[in-house]
Amino acid sequence: MSEKTKELLGEEPEVVFAEKRYAFISEILPKVLKGKRPLTRSDLLDKALLNKYLGIPVFLALWWALFRFTFDVSGPLSDLIDMSFGSLGEVVGGAIANEQLASFLADGVIGGLGGVLVFLPPIFFLFFGLSILEDSGYLARAAFVVDRVLYKLGLHGKSFIPMLIGFGCNIPGIMAARTIDKEEDRILTILVNPLMSCSARLPVYVLIGGAVLGGYAVTGTFSMYILGVVLAVLMALLFRRVIPYFKGKPSPFILELPMYSTPTLRSSLTHMWERGVLFLKKAGTIILAGIIVVWFLSSYPWGAPLEETYLAMLGHIIEPIFRPLGFDWRGAVGLFFGFIAKEIVVGSFAVIFGLGEEAEMESIQQTIANQGIFTPVTGLAFMAFTLLYIPCIATIGVIYRETNSWKWTIFSVAYGLILAYVVAFAIVGIGGLLGFA
Amino acid sequence: MKLNGGNGKVVATYALILGTIYFVLGIFEVVEGFGPFFGVTEGPVLGVEWLPADLFGGLAIIVVGAVYFGATPLWKAKYESLSFLLVSALLSTVFGALYMLILGANGFGAFLAGEEWEWMADLLRPEIWLFFLSLPLGYFALKATRTKRER
Q1: Which of A24, A134, B127, B139 could form a disulfide with B95 if both were Cys (CB 3.0 to 4.6 A apart)?
Q2: With contacts defined as CB-CB under 8 Å, which chain A residues touch B70?
């Protein structure tokens, strides 16, 4: 039907409708409005924010400000949660006589969960900042600004919104691709969406970056977000060129820009809560379950040294795959459990190091740094690997549901793993060549 | 307040000076951020203690400076150029507010950890005092622009 309409009109129907609508508006306006049309503040803001040369740099500058707000301003609140869980673990661990139960509660549940919940403030701050940008009307402009680039690179302008949502969580990001009409554009957007760094990867960046990148931790984290965007665009370009199904140009992007408005605190807080609470729910269910599994594997056979636990056995089996990337069995185990959900990576490190009772962020970072688990280069490679392989099991399920194809689902998992490996290997290789090994 | 030949020249000159300061400080921050690549691992590259080593932060304020440069046609009282003045003042506010929030967060963090708060380093962040210098331009931009279409 849509193909027939397109054939009849000679162009995409939306384009024709939009052109006709604006032609009609242009015809009426001079008849009802006399004199020179004055520019309002909203028009003036658009002139600079949508500027051909400055639009994208301004967008990136605002994005950077959002990141500093997310990480630096929320920092003390994370410390507060960290300290509270540390104290709670000590109290619970000391109050229970049964050694196994005390370890389960203090190291497994409280330590593991505390290690994840410290990331609640940055995640809420990120969503708060995004809500402000959205409510002000700027996000729609950002979509417009990046469309010029996206279109040239083979992505549909409407892909920007799913990609942006993907920064929060890839699941709604992938679902948001439903707004793209053309099947090929929609599947392409779904395939590259997991490369958008969702909030679940953030704890891993903060942990590893803080442990091995020192003063460059925030820069390293920001680089991951940029790397995700760059690779998403490159992959889209590659798929468009190489896979026959995606051949051709994306359909044009039509967007009616909303008016600028002053965001209200109430609405921004509401949006923040609606999105952030998903993380909270996930922390109480799938992440908690995953951490308990990690605790069990790292504690049994009971009383055995860590190197002889089931977890170490599993880690040693998969370690050879990750050795070329400079990750030992602990890093391999973290990535293995990251398949369930990325948040488990941090929780599993807390449990592996037996830091449950005092699982403060700093102690996990100090352990990573002191035991030389990662160097700055392998740490960066680990962050990149975390960014690029499939975000979580739930995302795989959504990809299948949205594409209704096992072929695309398996392809998405496979290319993510290969890309993660290649990029991590390249980081280690280039870092070595530059003398950072 | 209306934009005219007289105040346009003053505002354009002020925007040019402020844009240059932002631009130059941004470059300095980037250079400091690249310190380890120049083999400087301790102390400032340029020998200025208060300059932050902030690669992306430097690039961000280079952008602020570039947007200020876009406001220079105000010299000829070009109304459209107020757009760049509005956006640059907005960006100055975003970055000024951001670093003031970071200042407060660092203070709170130091209080929680029982450590001494080195507030001077945070307060010397150029984006904070450049924000205060941008206020007159922001005020002018708001007063000289229309919020609604007038007949």
Answers
A1: B127
A2: 48, 51, 54
Q: Do B112 and A76 touch (CB under 8 A)?
A: yes
Interchain CB distance below 8 Å, B91 and A215: no
* Cβ neighbours of B146 in A, within 8 Å: 38-41
**Model confidence pLDDT, tens digit, residues A388-413:** 998 887 788 888 878 889 999 999 99
What's the confidence (pLDDT) of residue A68? 86
Mean pLDDT across B107-129: 89
Position A162, amino acid:
P
Nearest by CB to residue B56, choosing from A51, A80, A219, is A219
* Mutation site for B-interface testing, chosen from A47, A133, A222, A227 by largest number of B Cβ within 10 Å: A47
Asked if the C-beta of B60 comes within 8 angstroms of chain A's C-beta atoms, the answer is: yes
Distances (CA, A) of A127 to A133, A270, A330: 10, 10, 31
Is A379:A213 a contact under the CB 8 Å cutoff?
yes
Residue B125, classified by CB atoms within 10 Å of its CB into exposed (0-12), middle (13-18) or buried (19+), is buried
Contact assessment for residue A112 and residue A294, using Cβ atoms and an 8 Å cutoff: yes
Tell me if the pTM is above 0.80: no
Chains A and B form CB pairs within 8 A to the count of: 103
CB contact under 8 A, A61 and B91: yes
Least confident of A6-20, A30-44, A422-436, B15-29: A6-20
How close A155 comes to chain B (CA, Å)? 26
User: Which residue stretches of B70-125 are H helix?
Assistant: 82-113, 119-123
Amino acid (one-letter) located at A27: E
The tokens for B94 are 């975003």
ipTM of the complex: 0.93
Tens digits of per-residue pLDDT, A281-303? 776 777 777 778 878 888 888 87
With beta carbons less than 8 A apart as the criterion, state whether B119 and A78 touch.
no
Instruction: Give tens-digit pLDDT for A219-229.
Output: 888 889 899 98
What is each CA distance from B137 to A61, B66, B72, B81, B143, in whole angstroms? 20, 15, 12, 13, 10
Closest CB from A38, A62, A76 relative to B146: A38
Cβ–Cβ contact B100 with A under 8 A: no
Nearest alpha-carbon partner for B94 in A300, A138, A105, A296: A138
